[in-house]
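Contributing new records

If you add data, match the layout below exactly. Sequence lines come first and carry their own label; structure lines follow with theirs. Keep one chain per record. Anything else will be rejected by the validation script.
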Amino acid sequence: MKKTLTLTTGSTLLLLASCGGQSKSTFEVENTSPNIVYILADDMGYGDVRAYNPDCKIPTPALDSLAAEGIAFTDAHTNSAVSTPTRYGILTGRYAFRSRLKNGVLVGHDPSLIEPGRETVATLLRKSGYHTACIGKWHLGLDWARRDTTKPLFTGNPWDIKDTGNIDYTGPVHGGPSDHGFDYSYVLPASLDIAPYVYVENGLVNSPVRTHTPNWRDEKARGMWYRHGDKADNFEHADCLQHFTRKAVEYIAGSAERKQPFFLYFPLTAPHTPWLPSAAFDGKSVAGVYGDFVCMVDDVVRQIRRALKESGQLENTILVFTSDNGSSWNPEDIEETGHRANAHFSGKKSDIWEGGHRVPFIVSWPKQIREGKKCDEVICTTDLIATCAEMTGQTLANDAGEDSFSFWKVLIGKSYASPLREATIHHSINGLFALRQGDWVYLDAHGSGGWTLPEKQAEHLPKEQLYNVKEDPAEQNNLATSHPDKVRSMKQLMEKYVSSGRSR
């Protein structure tokens, strides 16, 4: 499929001063429908990539090379500080708090979160002739078959299930990737530490589920553990990341035979707990087992690029690497290793402080991006669907991609004369909000909104927080009392975004 995309100028479009480097900058870009590979790390921080953090204690040669040859966005964010809502935002372009999920994450036996009929990146790209695949961690709920439809799916707490005897693992699994636009899917229902530990391939569990594995913990490192639950015969925790990588490589190789562009959504299970680097990566970093696991993630990127190159598809593939939230890295981890997984930002996974949602975001496209550049344009992981829509010449419906803004012009060396986004909402694990607008961020919370400084421990602090993140990226100087007008206007805008159901 070959077409020419014409970009209407209307007014003069400026070369992005904040995005150094070069790319093709003609107003007409010949587009042979580039392939798209979207690699989503799990719980990997901004400071875990040396291209972003010169003091990083973890070697990341593949990611550094990707950044040196592509665009490294330095002000990229997730819509949420935890897994499930970020994934919902990536695929739908909609803030997850607009769904039924107002806080927390789903577990492995929760029903599907993406509403039936909702536009996703996959359904959108299919309309333009793309073959679509999802390989990796799903974590957006699945509708499991029941042996007896009159009885509950399971008994006990969803995080500590007692009896799964009513789940029919041989029956069809609905509500997953196959029902949301993906032609091929091979997924783990949730995180690597959340049961059931099964592979669901095109809506079917692909191996008998005959084992209930117990809670496991290794004292070697705090992150080496997983919860008890049902396990398929073909599932091995220590091989999961590499298993998915082999599947992704196979898919890429097979795509070369297909006479159509492809979209591969490849959400990894690492470096989320359990930290299980293979023996080949033991001691590769000076950041402990976690750092070694990040090294393994870096090697996954190397394998994917090699597969693209060997299949002759690297040149015209847009390869994106990012993370679903910041790292779950504690002060004692920093003290022990000297490594700052979330760089100089405050907070971590779960928080609406910067460390919870500012993530590495690297885009490579050798056919278009000829040399590396850094870009400080503010973008969000919800922006994928709008970017794909502009790339393929489609217009999003009013009830699709409600919080998605296209950064397509950045990829082709152009920019809007004003910021891409008026403002961006971030959402913590506990359901609290932050609003980023320009250099300012407003937090409607006493503390971090998450695990670093929970509200109950922060009630003695001001209810509202305001920071200039350009001057104070570590969010140490709360300016709320000295800038009441800024607080008022940003709070009003945030409330408008929440109540109106959209931000675009």
